[in-house]
Amino acid sequence: MQLSKHFKLEEFEKSSTAIRLGITNKAGSGEIKNLTDLCYGVLELVRAKFDKPIIITSGYRSEELCVAIKSSKTSQHTKGQAVDFEIAGISNLELALWVQNNVDFDQLILEYWKEDEGANSGWVHCSFNQESNRKQVLTFDGKNYINGLPEAKWSGGKLTN
Prior knowledge:
Blueprint lengths: L8 H5 L2 H6 L7 H22 L4 E4 L4 H6 L13 E5 L5 H11 L4 E5 L11 E5 L8 E5 L4 E3 L5 E3 L2 E3 L1
Protein backbone atom coordinates (compact mmCIF):
# COMPACT_ATOMS: atom_id res chain seq x y z
CA MET A 1 0.00 0.00 0.00
CA GLN A 2 1.39 3.39 -1.03
CA LEU A 3 1.30 5.94 1.84
CA SER A 4 2.80 8.84 -0.11
CA LYS A 5 4.82 9.43 -3.27
CA HIS A 6 8.01 7.82 -1.93
CA PHE A 7 6.85 5.59 0.93
CA LYS A 8 5.01 2.29 1.21
CA LEU A 9 3.36 0.76 4.26
CA GLU A 10 5.57 -2.32 3.96
CA GLU A 11 8.67 -0.20 4.74
CA PHE A 12 7.17 0.75 8.10
CA GLU A 13 5.94 -2.72 9.06
CA LYS A 14 9.13 -4.60 8.16
CA SER A 15 10.98 -5.97 11.17
CA SER A 16 13.59 -8.71 11.21
CA THR A 17 12.88 -9.20 14.93
CA ALA A 18 9.16 -9.70 14.26
CA ILE A 19 9.95 -12.20 11.50
CA ARG A 20 12.45 -14.08 13.66
CA LEU A 21 10.05 -14.27 16.64
CA GLY A 22 6.88 -14.90 14.62
CA ILE A 23 5.28 -11.62 15.74
CA THR A 24 2.55 -10.09 13.60
CA ASN A 25 3.47 -6.47 12.94
CA LYS A 26 0.57 -5.05 10.93
CA ALA A 27 -0.73 -1.52 11.35
CA GLY A 28 -4.47 -0.91 11.68
CA SER A 29 -6.40 1.85 9.94
CA GLY A 30 -5.67 4.46 12.64
CA GLU A 31 -1.98 3.71 12.57
CA ILE A 32 -1.97 3.81 8.76
CA LYS A 33 -3.52 7.28 8.85
CA ASN A 34 -0.83 8.40 11.32
CA LEU A 35 1.92 6.89 9.15
CA THR A 36 0.52 8.76 6.15
CA ASP A 37 0.57 12.00 8.16
CA LEU A 38 4.16 11.23 9.20
CA CYS A 39 5.15 10.70 5.58
CA TYR A 40 3.66 13.99 4.41
CA GLY A 41 4.56 15.99 7.53
CA VAL A 42 8.18 14.86 7.82
CA LEU A 43 9.60 12.26 5.44
CA GLU A 44 8.52 13.71 2.10
CA LEU A 45 10.01 17.07 3.15
CA VAL A 46 13.31 15.39 4.08
CA ARG A 47 13.25 13.43 0.80
CA ALA A 48 12.68 16.62 -1.20
CA LYS A 49 15.53 18.46 0.56
CA PHE A 50 18.19 15.76 0.26
CA ASP A 51 16.89 14.20 -2.99
CA LYS A 52 18.03 10.74 -1.88
CA PRO A 53 16.13 7.65 -0.71
CA ILE A 54 15.40 7.46 3.00
CA ILE A 55 16.23 4.22 4.77
CA ILE A 56 13.59 3.38 7.36
CA THR A 57 15.18 1.27 10.09
CA SER A 58 12.09 1.13 12.30
CA GLY A 59 8.57 2.37 11.70
CA TYR A 60 5.35 0.88 13.00
CA ARG A 61 5.78 -1.53 15.92
CA SER A 62 3.02 -3.62 17.46
CA GLU A 63 2.89 -3.66 21.26
CA GLU A 64 4.16 -7.26 21.18
CA LEU A 65 7.15 -6.22 19.09
CA CYS A 66 7.88 -3.32 21.46
CA VAL A 67 7.93 -5.74 24.40
CA ALA A 68 10.24 -8.09 22.48
CA ILE A 69 12.79 -5.31 21.83
CA LYS A 70 12.42 -3.89 25.35
CA SER A 71 10.75 -0.71 24.17
CA SER A 72 7.67 0.85 25.75
CA LYS A 73 4.23 -0.44 24.76
CA THR A 74 3.17 3.24 24.69
CA SER A 75 5.92 4.23 22.22
CA GLN A 76 4.77 6.51 19.41
CA HIS A 77 5.92 3.71 17.09
CA THR A 78 2.85 1.68 18.25
CA LYS A 79 0.58 4.53 17.10
CA GLY A 80 2.26 4.91 13.72
CA GLN A 81 3.53 8.33 14.74
CA ALA A 82 7.29 7.63 14.82
CA VAL A 83 10.03 6.51 12.48
CA ASP A 84 13.76 5.81 12.79
CA PHE A 85 15.63 6.60 9.60
CA GLU A 86 18.80 7.67 7.89
CA ILE A 87 20.07 8.61 4.44
CA ALA A 88 23.19 6.97 2.99
CA GLY A 89 25.97 9.52 2.57
CA ILE A 90 24.34 12.17 4.80
CA SER A 91 25.51 12.68 8.36
CA ASN A 92 22.78 11.78 10.84
CA LEU A 93 23.67 14.94 12.77
CA GLU A 94 23.20 17.04 9.62
CA LEU A 95 19.91 15.27 8.96
CA ALA A 96 18.68 15.89 12.53
CA LEU A 97 19.74 19.55 12.38
CA TRP A 98 17.84 20.05 9.14
CA VAL A 99 14.69 18.42 10.55
CA GLN A 100 14.96 20.52 13.72
CA ASN A 101 15.14 23.76 11.73
CA ASN A 102 12.72 23.02 8.88
CA VAL A 103 10.02 20.54 9.87
CA ASP A 104 7.15 20.44 12.35
CA PHE A 105 7.64 17.41 14.60
CA ASP A 106 6.68 16.11 18.00
CA GLN A 107 9.97 14.54 19.06
CA LEU A 108 13.36 14.44 17.37
CA ILE A 109 16.08 12.22 18.81
CA LEU A 110 19.58 11.70 17.46
CA GLU A 111 20.11 8.15 18.72
CA TYR A 112 23.46 6.42 19.27
CA TRP A 113 25.34 9.05 17.25
CA LYS A 114 29.01 9.28 18.18
CA GLU A 115 31.21 11.93 16.64
CA ASP A 116 34.27 9.69 16.61
CA GLU A 117 32.45 6.83 14.84
CA GLY A 118 31.67 8.68 11.63
CA ALA A 119 28.85 10.68 10.13
CA ASN A 120 26.44 7.79 9.79
CA SER A 121 26.69 6.33 13.26
CA GLY A 122 23.33 5.92 14.96
CA TRP A 123 20.08 7.09 13.39
CA VAL A 124 17.42 9.80 13.56
CA HIS A 125 14.14 9.18 15.38
CA CYS A 126 11.32 11.55 14.51
CA SER A 127 7.69 11.54 15.53
CA PHE A 128 4.79 13.58 14.23
CA ASN A 129 1.33 14.13 15.67
CA GLN A 130 -1.25 15.76 13.44
CA GLU A 131 -3.00 17.19 16.55
CA SER A 132 -0.05 18.95 18.23
CA ASN A 133 3.71 18.73 18.28
CA ARG A 134 5.97 19.42 21.28
CA LYS A 135 9.13 20.15 19.23
CA GLN A 136 11.19 18.18 21.77
CA VAL A 137 14.83 17.68 20.68
CA LEU A 138 17.07 15.12 22.38
CA THR A 139 20.27 13.18 21.87
CA PHE A 140 20.47 9.62 23.23
CA ASP A 141 23.95 8.18 23.75
CA GLY A 142 22.80 4.69 24.71
CA LYS A 143 22.56 5.52 28.40
CA ASN A 144 21.24 9.05 28.81
CA TYR A 145 18.92 11.47 27.08
CA ILE A 146 20.41 14.94 26.69
CA ASN A 147 18.40 18.01 25.69
CA GLY A 148 19.28 19.32 22.23
CA LEU A 149 21.65 18.12 19.53
CA PRO A 150 25.46 18.06 19.62
CA GLU A 151 27.17 21.17 18.34
CA ALA A 152 27.90 20.79 14.65
CA LYS A 153 31.30 21.51 13.15
CA TRP A 154 31.10 23.10 9.72
CA SER A 155 33.83 23.61 7.15
CA GLY A 156 33.29 25.03 3.68
CA GLY A 157 29.51 24.85 4.11
CA LYS A 158 29.66 21.11 4.94
CA LEU A 159 29.34 19.25 8.21
CA THR A 160 32.63 17.63 9.22
CA ASN A 161 33.48 15.12 11.91
